[in-house]
Amino acid sequence: MNNFVFRNPTKLIFGKGTIARLAEEIPAGCKLMVTFGGGSVKKNGVYDQVTAALKGRDYIEFWGIEPNPKIETLRKAVEQCRRWGVDYLLAVGGGSVLDGTKLIAAAVKYNGDAWDLVRNNALIGEILPFGDVMTLPATASEMNRNAVISSIETKEKFGMKVDYPRFSILDPQTTFSLPKYQRAAGMADTFIHVMEQYMTVAGESPLMDRWSEGILQTLVEIAPSVLENENDYDSMANYMLCATTGLNGFIAMGVTEDWSTHQIGHELTAINGLTHGHTLAIVFPGLLKVLRDQKMAKILQYGERVWGIHDGTPEERAARTIDATENFFRSLGLQTRLHEVGIGEDIILEIERRFNERGVAFGEGRNVNGTIARRILEAVK
Ligand code: NZQ
Ligand code: ZN
To answer: What's the confidence (pLDDT) of residue 240?
Structure first.
């Protein structure tokens, strides 16, 4: 097991009716900005619950943080925070609203342009405190310090480290209104978060392995219900908890991580606009094919424990395990090949070019460079 430091200060408030507790969590007397996306919260009653909970408080609203939050939008929010003297932020929505709000929190007191902070996290100084009401289980942004920010101008998308939410309110009932595609993409995102921390080196921690496999097995078990039973509280509650624990540090203790599927997926979204979780469902089976030998021991363990694949040569078992993984994503209703989502060779070559230009190499072996990224994408053309 590798050395590690674990700290996660977010207070998680989980369950039915918990939005009503908002006012207890936000200090009295602060100047609050509440941030939203495109309006889903007005249709599903979340906005009404938030405004009822904040009755009598001093706050302004900022609307329009879009999926894959754009720096161009966030700059406007930063301006408004400065103008109104905002000193506390509340994000209400999915991972994009919360990620965008993290960037706003870091940029309000920064003297230069907010994009500088995305490109160089070391420039982050004072960060405004923030909390959230999370309405989409996927990113675990509600319990980690990551934000992923995009630029319309440069067609780029980068992850960054900001800070943890002070608190996160998760009422699974808020997810009943999620369209099927967002449920599918969110489950794929959660699945791959676990994989990024699990599908690396065998034998580092049997405990972390079992926790990871527990999340994967739970996702496989509940997926049909999450997709078909729109208002099933227990399925959505378990899905939400899978998402949160999938990327809040619990399964990363002492183990080697990968993250190259995410790096390639971010490029697909930046260039083509494809939804985050969907990019991962396409890239990951390709990554397993190209890096099969490097990851063989873990692929076999995963195949055995999650899919019950015991028989055959290691090569046969690995092939069946990779097929089972791709079939799982297809069972969610997601296409798993690039041509099915209109992505061709030009984008593959552009991603190779970008990785080469940046001189990057990702993954536990630090070997997923431009050439390997191209091979991974070509494996799932
Ligand atoms: O904007 P509104 O109208 O609210 O609609 C949203 C949006 O259109 C809608 N939605 C959210 N909750 C809903 C709902 N619709 C109906 N009912 C609800 N309860 O869903 C759409 C997608 O929302 P978005 O926030 O973009 O989705 P998600 O939570 O999957 O976030 C994706 C972003 O998070 C980043 C991704 O790269 C992407 O930019 N990630 C953040 C991570 C982190 N902070 O740790 C890790 C992830 O790997 C990921 O990269
Ligand atoms: Zn993700």
So the answer is: 98
Task: State pLDDT tens for residues 193-211.
Answer: 999 999 999 999 999 999 9
The set of residues, in sequence order, having a beta carbon less than 8 Å from that of 83 and lying 6+ positions away, is none
| Ligand 2 centroid distance, CA of 82 (Å) | 31
Q: What is the pLDDT of residue 156?
A: 97
State the CB neighbour count (10 A cutoff) for residue 30: 15
Nearest CA to ligand 1 atom 41: 139
Which residue from 19, 280, 313 is spatially nearest to 173, judged by alpha carbons? 19
What is the per-residue pLDDT for 171?
98
Q: Which residues partner with 132 through β-bridges?
A: 91, 168
For residue 174 and ligand 1, the question of a CB distance below 6 A is answered with yes
Ligand 1 near 38 CB (within 6 A):
yes
Nearest bound ligand to the CA of residue 273: 1
Instruction: For the chain, list residues with pLDDT below 70.
Output: none
The residue to mutate among 148, 191, 230, 245, having the most atoms of ligand 1 within 8 angstroms of its beta carbon, is: 148
pLDDT at 120: 98
Counting ligand 1 atoms within 8 A of each CB, the residue from 98, 99, 164, 261 with the most, and so the one to mutate, is: 99
Q: How far is 249 from 252, CA to CA, in rounded Å? A: 5
DSSP annotation of 10 reads: P
Q: How distant is the alpha carbon of residue 329 from its chain centre?
A: 16
Q: Residue 363: helix, strand or coil by DSSP?
A: coil
Q: What is the pLDDT of residue 27?
A: 96
How far, in Å, CA of 86 to CA of 370, rounded? 43
Instruction: Decide: pTM greater than 0.85.
Output: yes
Closest CA to 306 of 177, 214, 181: 214
Residue 67, token pair as written in the block: 């999926």
Q: Report the residue among 34, 42, 96 best suited for mutation to probe ligand 1: largest number of ligand atoms under 8 A from its CB.
A: 96
